[in-house]
Specification:
By secondary structure, the protein is an alpha+beta fold. Helices cover 29% and strands 27% of the residues. It is built from 4 helices and 7 strands; from the N terminus they run E-E-E-H-H-E-E-H-H-E-E. The protein is globular, with a radius of gyration of 16 Å. It starts with 19 loop residues before the first strand and ends with a strand. ATP binds at residue 49.
Length: 163
């Protein structure tokens, strides 16, 4: 796959937390959690990464978070989770990401025991394309593992967690 792929992002330039209804926790991390978010008045769902400022500062991760945001804003590819916007309030920094409904490859792999060769080759091919794109942007991804690979509703891989 060559050429450019542009994920069509809605106008999020003025989004704030009150525009979203936050639901279930999708995952947790060192600085906060990822929650399911729904844009009020729509049926549009997002993964909202809520990072506690106090923890980011305490763990000296301000520059790290800034780099993650910069990387996510630069990337737009069908096999990479896209960031729509970011904003903050007095307690947290929020990254609004594309919601990928299929869950982690890790969960599917654990359930199946192993993937059939054709499925493994399919995922591998998509990862090659994703990493060709990432490396073409001079970005090094250092956390490749099944927990950081998601499957969309059509079974395509999405690389996540650039933090």
């Amino acid at each position: 796959m060559t050429g450019s792929y542009v994920y069509e992002k809605p106008d999020t330039s003025k989004w704030k937390l009150s525009d979203l209804e936050l639901g279930a926790t999708l995952g947790t991390g060192s600085f906060g959690r990822v929650r399911l978010g729904k844009l009020k008045g729509t049926n549009n769902y997002y993964a909202v990464k809520c990072l506690k400022k106090r923890e980011i500062i305490k763990m000296k991760q301000v520059q790290h978070l800034s780099q993650e945001k910069q990387i996510l804003m630069e990337l737009s590819h069908p096999f990479i989770v896209n960031m729509l916007c970011s904003f903050q309030d007095e307690r947290c920094v929020y990254l609004v990401l594309e919601f990928v409904i299929g869950g982690e490859v890790f969960t599917h792999l654990r359930s199946a025991g192993r993937f059939p060769n054709d499925v493994a080759k399919f995922y591998h091919a998509e990862l090659v394309l994703a990493f060709e794109y990432i490396h073409g942007k001079d970005i090094i991804y250092r956390d490749l593992k099944p927990e950081n690979l998601l499957l969309d509703s059509k079974g395509h891989v999405k690389v996540t967690d650039f933090g």
